[in-house]
From TrEMBL:
The keyword Protein transport does not apply. It comes from the Eukaryota. Residues 1-19 form the signal peptide. The gene is FJX1. GO terms for biological process: cell-cell signaling. The keyword Signal applies. This is Four-jointed box kinase 1. It comes from Esox lucius (Northern pike). Keywords: Signal. One of its GO terms (cellular component) is extracellular space.
């Protein structure tokens, strides 16, 4: 009798909990729907008014996971706050394994800014000086990237486990013990965006994205046969094209620097303000300017733009770690999880463009090499052709994954032209400094 009573009591408790969860879930869904209905009518006059004050801090992530039919063209997003490489899982967990960087610098980046007036931080008004460029190691050299891609294509995968963001992605261990993050996209747009952003960065000479290859799932192939049971349990589709990105150990999160926060005047080539920064801070700011150009061109809303958007209900979001951006112990920034760029980013551009423009407009100092690449792509007007050639020459599976449409190629060229105009505008304002 006691056993029957205990079972009835347990059943009653379970039913009560289920009811509470159902009511709570309904309220959350209702609140989210109210927000999305009112989103497009929100004023841009200030960043803070907008969504109801009771929206949870992670509503931006919730919006990205709303099904496509309910999304107001938000597209596919992620359900995690960090990123592709899963910084919380990787810090200090992989021993001494690290990635290759070019350390052939004239001096260590640890030294402070010289007080000598002969040392300039900015050249030609708007470009970071050669003195600073010499203190920035190359993150992932072309030689290293090419060697990693070659090796990864022939490596057998012996283990798949969580550790690369959302559950559909997996941390893969190769037979030689090295690791890579496997991105299995909810749809092809995500893998395509990740891949094409990597090659766009290469076209611009930006080396902060880890090497990437494509692979086609085939449980009978030498690369995937050892983990066939795991693939079946993950319900990954046979013949799907996935991306594998080099795993980088010992990374830490990155907070948006003060000059790029909402109450700042922006990152301007003013000697007085720049000299208040340490050498380490200046070297990091250089990399931020590359990041801002790349994210603007690719329309990647899932990094600094998402923080700017979230200011509407979270005034301290800029004081916390930036999505999908990490730092190595040497001070190199690593741009990860770029699936929101290009293909998907262009589809939802109307929603995010004002934020992209605001961030681009906050910067008027650039790396000279990056600016020269933008100027060249503007003048030759062949961005689509050059990106496609680089992609096809470097990736054997490019025909299977495909390329973006002519319409999106036109969007990219237009954004190249806008960045060129912005650089020209900054040059006109600050060339006499």
């Amino acid at each position: 009798m006691r056993a029957v009573s205990a079972n009835l009591l347990a059943l009653l408790l379970f039913c009560t909990c289920a009811c509470v969860f159902y009511v709570w879930n309904s309220l959350e869904v209702s609140r989210l729907e109210r927000y999305t209905r009112g989103l497009q009518s929100a004023s841009w006059g200030t960043l803070h008014p907008g969504p109801p004050s009771d929206l949870p801090v992670k509503t931006f992530r919730a919006l990205l996971t709303v099904p496509a039919a309910q999304r107001l063209h938000f597209g596919d997003g992620r359900q995690y706050v960090h990123n592709l490489t899963g910084v919380r899982d990787q810090t200090g967990s992989l021993g001494s394994r690290d990635y290759h960087i070019n350390v052939d610098n004239k001096e260590s980046a640890q030294k402070g800014v010289p007080e000598s007036n002969f040392v300039s931080l900015v050249e030609e008004g708007i470009f970071w000086s050669e003195w600073l460029e010499d203190r920035l190691p190359v993150s992932f050299s072309e030689k290293h990237a090419r060697a990693w891609r070659e090796r990864a294509r022939g490596q057998r995968i012996v283990k798949l486990e969580p550790g690369c963001g959302r559950i559909s992605n997996q941390l893969a261990t190769f037979l030689d013990g090295t690791k890579a993050c496997v991105r299995y996209g909810i749809n092809a747009d995500q893998v395509q965006g990740e891949t094409l952003t990597y090659y766009l960065a290469g076209l611009l000479g930006i080396t902060n994205i880890p090497p990437l290859i494509l692979s086609q799932l085939n449980v009978d192939s030498e690369q995937w046969d050892y983990v066939r049971r795991k693939i079946f349990s993950l319900q990954w589709s046979e013949r799907a094209v996935v991306s594998l990105t080099e795993w980088v150990a010992n990374l830490t999160g990155v907070v948006t620097p003060e000059p790029l926060r909402q109450k700042s005047k922006g990152l301007l080539p003013l000697p007085g303000e720049l000299r208040n920064q340490t050498t380490e801070e200046l070297v990091e700011l250089m990399q931020w300017t590359d990041l801002i150009i790349l994210d603007y061109l690719s329309a990647n809303f899932d990094r600094l733009v998402s923080n700017l958007f979230s200011l509407q209900w979270d005034s301290r979001v800029m004081e916390r770690e930036t999505n999908n951006l990490l730092r190595t112990p040497r001070g190199n920034l690593v741009f990860i999880d770029n699936e929101a760029g290009l293909v998907h980013g262009f589809r939802v551009l109307d929603m995010w463009e004002k934020y992209h423009s605001t961030i681009l407009g906050s910067v008027c100092v650039f790396r000279k090499r990056t600016a020269q690449r933008v100027i060249e792509l503007h003048r030759r007007r062949d961005t689509r052709t050059r990106l496609l050639e680089l992609y096809r020459d470097s990736e054997p599976l490019s025909p299977e994954l495909g390329f973006f449409s002519d319409e999106h190629a036109g969007v990219l060229q237009t954004r190249i032209d806008r960045v060129y105009k912005h650089i020209t505008h900054c040059k006109g304002m600050y060339h006499q400094l």
